Amino acid sequence: MFPTQSSRRQFLAASGLAATAAVAGCLDAIGGTGSNPASGDAERSLRLTLSRSGETLRDGFVVDLSDTPPGWDEEAFEATLDGTAYTTRHRKPFFSAPDDPKYTERDGTYYRLGSVVIDETTTTHPVLRLSEVEGADGDASPGGVRASALPDVDRTAVRVAYFAARARGDEGGVPWGLVERGGYVYRGAEAVGASALLAEDGPERVTYREQAYAVEVSRERFHEPVYRATVEPVAESPEGMEAVLRAKFVDARFGREDLSAAARDVVTAAAEDGYGEHHPYSEGYREVLSNLHARAYLDGDIENDAGVPEDGRHLLRYDDVYYDYRLRFVPSGG
């Protein structure tokens, strides 16, 4: 579900989690059943859930740059709108991508924000890596310091490098969006200048979560893209922007008048607590699946069907209200 009053990023993150679960549930359900649908249908049901999101898409997809961190996005927008080329190195302006666009509004005009790669640059950055020191107390041993006593930039670096060090022991996951090259990369002269760990006389060990870690700093070469921000007008009214978003994101649309009474009951149940059936599905459920363009599920032998969506992002417009919907296989009784 993406809340109408929350940021677009929150919606996409939640949808990404639903995508992973939906695909995993599907694969788990069909695993080991072979090509015979009957062997798996007694053990699984196809469940549909609907989450109401609101009557407009703009609330979730159009952002106010003055209220949205980081602050440099508004700077990039203003400069580009005035005809000035705004470029960044490594960092993509607006964090916008073709399959994950970002929009904003100014004086009644709606703009799609993005970027293009215009060059490559080679530079050197310090990389912090940590390695666990068994049986050592970081702040009691020579050259040791607690992470909490370090400058802000170093506390962030230690936290990220800790995740990478922990993963080497095969415990927990790694936030790859933060971890780079097995540690933390200091970018920017301001961050480097504020760091105590990067100083010539910096500590050799740091204690984080009551565990001592040896500090390793290396200076490594990076080849980074150079981005130029882009700002493109796409609509001149709220209605026009809504049409753009519908065309981009809505997968299916229908209303009560398009459905039989049995199919309407399925939609109502799916919006309340979710709805599921075993194959072969009832006429009402088959009707709903057809209107959702989910025909690959109809014969039950989805393992041999082609074109089954894998991204998990699905939006429905039903009676002029938007719903985030999810289809997944669950064990019987689930």
SSE diagram, text form:
Layout: H1 8-30, H2 37-41, E1 44-54, H3 58-61, E2 62-63, H4 72-81, E3 87-89, E4 102-106, E5 109-132, E6 144-146, H5 152-168, E7 184-185, H6 189-194, E8 205-208, E9 211-235, H7 238-249, E10 252-254, H8 261-272, E11 275-277, H9 283-291, E12 315-318, E13 321-331
Parallel strand pairs: 2-4, 6-8, 10-12
Antiparallel strand pairs: 1-11, 1-13, 3-9, 4-5, 5-7, 5-9, 8-9, 12-13
Helix pairs in contact: 8-9
Brief summary:
The chain is of the alpha+beta class and 334 residues long. It has nine helices and 13 strands.
Search tags:
334 residues, eight-stranded mixed sheet, five-stranded mixed sheet, 30% strand, alpha+beta, 13 strands, flat, 3 domains
Can you describe what's shown?
The chain has 334 residues and is an alpha+beta fold. The chain has three domains: 8-57 and 250-331, no CATH class; 77-122 and 225-237, no CATH class; 123-219, no CATH class. The protein has nine helices and 13 strands. Strands 2, 3, 4, 5, 6, 7, 8 and 9 form an eight-stranded mixed beta sheet that branches. Strand 4 (102-106) and strand 5 (109-132) form a beta hairpin. Helix 8 packs across helix 9 (283-291). The longest helix has 23 residues, at 8-30. Residues 1-40 have low confidence and may be disordered.
